Amino acid sequence: MMEQERYVDKNMPSLISDLQRLIRQPSVSAKNIGIRECAVLAAKIMRESGIKTEILRLGKGIAPAVYGEVRSKKNPQKTILFYNHYDVQPEEPIDLWNDPPFSGKIRGNKIYGRGAADDKGELITRIKAVEAFLRTTGDVPCNIKFLVEGEEEVGSMHVEEYLRKFKTKLSCDGVIWEFGYVDEKGRPVISLGMKGLLYVELTAKESVRDAHSSLAVLIENPAWRMVEALRTLRDVDGKILIKDWYKEVDPFSREELGIIRKEPFDEGSFKREYGITRFVGGREGVDVKKAMVGGSTCNIAGFSSGWEGPGAKTVLPSTASVKIDFRLVPRMDPSRQLLRLAKHLRKKGFGDIQVRVIHGEAASRTPVSDPFVKVVEDAAHESFGSAVISISSAGTGPMYSFSKVLGAPCISVGSTYVYARIHSPNEFARIDLLKKATKCVCKILRNFGART
Amino acid sequence: MMEQERYVDKNMPSLISDLQRLIRQPSVSAKNIGIRECAVLAAKIMRESGIKTEILRLGKGIAPAVYGEVRSKKNPQKTILFYNHYDVQPEEPIDLWNDPPFSGKIRGNKIYGRGAADDKGELITRIKAVEAFLRTTGDVPCNIKFLVEGEEEVGSMHVEEYLRKFKTKLSCDGVIWEFGYVDEKGRPVISLGMKGLLYVELTAKESVRDAHSSLAVLIENPAWRMVEALRTLRDVDGKILIKDWYKEVDPFSREELGIIRKEPFDEGSFKREYGITRFVGGREGVDVKKAMVGGSTCNIAGFSSGWEGPGAKTVLPSTASVKIDFRLVPRMDPSRQLLRLAKHLRKKGFGDIQVRVIHGEAASRTPVSDPFVKVVEDAAHESFGSAVISISSAGTGPMYSFSKVLGAPCISVGSTYVYARIHSPNEFARIDLLKKATKCVCKILRNFGART
User: Fold this and answer.
1) A60 and A149 assigned to the same domain
2) Following DSSP, what letter does each residue of B346-396 receive, concatenated?
3) Within a domain: residue B392?
4) At residue B452, does pLDDT exceed 80?
5) Under an 8 A CB cutoff, do A303 and B307 touch?
6) pLDDT confidence bin for A1, thresholds 50/70/90
7) Which residue of B228, B291, B301 is in closest CB contact with A213?
8) What integer pLDDT is reported at residue A154 of this predicted model?
9) Per-residue pLDDT tens for A102-117?
């Protein structure tokens, strides 16, 4: 075992307590709670590990980003950038948490709390890997940069602006992405791509105010109108019915299909974890994996209308509001898909339903042939004993902006157990995986530096 | 003018300030806020007017009812019962109120606040009419009874139990119902019936917890399932598609149709008030009035699923919950209609959607030929200069329980302007109508006593 890995083993208590510090500082970007405070705390923890930091700002109302840097003395030609985020999802529904959402409570092998895995757990593994090199050798195998943003959970609206404004500062030869999953068999999933996202809010309005529901004989109910509109968007098998929605999408290549087939996916385990008995559209086998990698979705993320409290209120609501997130795959342009959605609603007679865009972002994929893939794959094999390549995650992130602005390959690898309940109550990080992932980052830096 | 009417004229300031006292005591039955306190306050105000009161109780967790009584010295053979309620609808959405919801703020001819019209305004007119007789003559023209309940806005779940338990105490020859509308031309609407109500909550569950919405490629979304289920319940014109829903309903009789045709309804004024341009199903003319009197509805009173806060949360909800109120017409039995709904869902493949009954209540109508109708009609004509007979209100109340248990005709007449925003923000009572309605109650008591 190399001395950095031994350092990681010895210093797990400090990794854990620093992660708890981060969890205990709420940082909910959707509610603008604790954002500035968490940026300051993240920078402080990075400095304590020997990383030079700087708070980057774009302007008022935009969450600051934390920049971190360690220049390599012996190998200043190559640079790895760690992309992470210090913000978290809202903690609701609070009553389903076993501990307070920002407790950082440890039970056995798990640290609980909103952000424990997504993304404070990932961030801490990267900080501690850099610390391991600095404390054992006083140097790092290649230049290290960090970009830790504060708006990832609300769609990373400004990350591209950060990338453009600080392009020189952030220039690099490879990006380690903010998340990385470990499957139920302990294999890290090395993901080379991300889906895009079009997040919209639809609003139907009818009467100028809520009315007594006895008037439903005369006044149209906007919740009914929304139901009528929604049913035109998607069939029961999940296929999106908007004209030309899939028009530009390429079928998988033979090489991609080969990787998809090899990617393990334990259907039974997944179903047990979520307590479900079938998949959307009755998918099975390779179709399940194809959907995860390349399926576009139309998901009702929120539906709100009328009386949602306890008991009975006989009200005819004046408004119905629906939040929909469409996952996009490569070559689906968010703006073009938005126009198609608006046109669809108009054509189906729902032109009065307002469509407000909350976020739009294109999909991105790093080619399997990029040499950076091998660096990461080898490190993951060494640290975890095995690894899985995935051509795209089912999730979304601003990978397209990174590859476009920085021109560097982006790869995700990390410590997050696939059932770590991210975005849900009782989110946790597994301590054993935090340790392995930190060692994996050490190996990535070492391998990457050695290849220069 | 009779001396009671002069008394009413002189003592409007006390009526107004007592109404304000009632409004300023919140009494939201859906949230169990201020219920006991408001019962005590209502009894106190009744006693101040000379009415003997008693707090009736059925048991823990059931809102108390206020009983009031004044025995007539000169005419103890006949009894009128006033049925009212001291509870109010929830005040939400609070941010649409111009004043705090329980302010009792006066602006010109209007008193604002939740409950100002429904039903604290109606209650105060009846108390003050009785006070007018007691203060001017020391007697009342017939026995007076009050039943003021505290669960009307959550469906009067226990009023029938109160009626049964206190049947002798509450026995009477005629009931003046808790509400009464005054149309846009100042004509009181004398309503002889009420629709029934079946209020249910539908719940669709899928995953055991909320998940990241990237998993929408695999996990079914219960909000989508709810949309699919709802669309089978109703067509776009409002017709309910549940098998045999309308099976027992009698068509209107010739006499009923005659009354419906005579009933005024200003479509333009109604549309302007609610800011709408057409009615459900494109109804016009007599069809609008027939729908108000005899239409059954399936109204989405609430739809709640997923992220309803500000901004974007990319969540796949585990649950979707919908509250539906069906208005029922005579001969529709709530239990039978519920079975039909459940059977419909099963047959359409939605047997997994849970149906929870929140409330069920049958419709009721007092025959136009009942002599009590003439008593009320004459009093309304005298007080307001005109009056309109309606064979049924579009709303629901436990009238069926009253007519069944007490065997007395029930008639609604009162002070509530038809656009008084009951159940909505900025609910108000009109001071001119409160005065006229109080005088109208005086005349009803006088006419009813004189006919004995």
Assistant:
1) yes
2) HHTT-TTSEEEEEEEE--EE--TT-HHHHHHHHHHHHHHS--EEES--SSB
3) yes
4) no
5) no
6) confident
7) B301
8) 85
9) 999 999 999 999 999 9
**Domain check: are A177 and A73 in the same one?**
yes
pLDDT at residue B311 is higher than 90: no
**Chain B hits for A316, Cβ within 8 Å:** 299, 301
Instruction: Count A/B contacts: CB-CB distance under 8 Å.
Output: 286
A213 with B299: Cβ contact below 8 A: yes
Q: What is the CATH number of the domain that holds A78?
A: 3.40.630.10
Q: B267-292: buried (b, 16+ CB within 10 Å) or exposed (e) per residue?
A: eeebbebbebeebbbebeeeebbbbb
A89 and A141: one domain? yes
Q: Which residue of chain A comes nearest to B322, CA vs CA?
A: A308
Tell me whether residue B284 is in a domain: no
Asked if residue B309 is part of any domain, the answer here is: yes
Q: Structurally, how many domains does chain B consist of?
A: 2
Q: Flag whether B182 is in a domain.
A: yes
CB-CB neighbors (< 8 A) of B213 in chain A: 297, 299, 301, 325, 327
Would the CB atoms of A209 and B313 count as touching at under 8 Å?
no
Structure-block tokens of residue A431? 């301590």
Supply φ then ψ for residue A353, to 5 degrees.
-75, 125
Among the partner residues A31, A217, A307, nearest to B302 by beta-carbon distance:
A307
Q: Which tens digits make up the pLDDT trace of B75-108?
A: 999 999 999 999 999 999 899 999 999 999 999 9
Looking at per-residue pLDDT, the higher value among A37 and A418 belongs to A37
Angle at A6 between CA A120 and CA A436, to 5 degrees: 40
Is it the case that residue A232 has pLDDT exceeding 80? yes
Are A56 and A153 part of one and the same domain? yes
Render the burial of B419-439: b for 16+ CB within 10 Å, e for the rest.
bbbbbbbbbbbbbebbbbbbb
Residue A205: which CATH number? 3.30.70.360
Are residues A240 and A134 part of one domain?
no
Using alpha carbons, list the distances in angstroms from residue A304 to B298, B308, B422: 18, 6, 22
Q: Domain boundary residue among B346, B361, B376?
A: B361
Rounded to two decimals, the pTM is: 0.80
Which residue segment(s) compose the domain that A342 sits in?
196-249+296-361
Beginning with the edge strand found earlier in the chain, give each strand of the sheet holding A428-430 in spatial order: A106-107, A110-112, A428-430
Question: Would you call A217 and B292 a contact, using CB atoms and an 8 Å cutoff?
Answer: yes
Q: B53 with B189, same domain?
A: yes
Residues A433 and A382 in one domain: yes
Q: Is the CB of A216 less than 8 angstroms away from the CB of B327?
A: yes
**B190 and B207 share a domain?**
no
Backbone angles phi, psi at A55, to 5 degrees: -90, 120
- Chain B CB contacts of A311 under 8 Å are 29-31, 154, 358
Question: Minimal CA–CA distance to B223: which of A305, A281, A46?
Answer: A305
- What backbone torsions phi and psi does residue B84 show, to the nearest 5 degrees? -140, 175
**pLDDT above 70 (res B40):** yes
**What secondary structure letter does DSSP report for B21?**
H
Which of the listed residues B361, B377, B401 is the one where a domain comes to its end? B361
**Which tokens hold the place of A131?**
């610390």
Return mean pLDDT, chain A.
95
In what helix (H) or strand (E) does residue B254 lie, and over which residues does it extend? helix B254-262
* Residues contacting residue A398 through CB under 8 Å, at least 6 positions apart: A156, A159, A160, A361
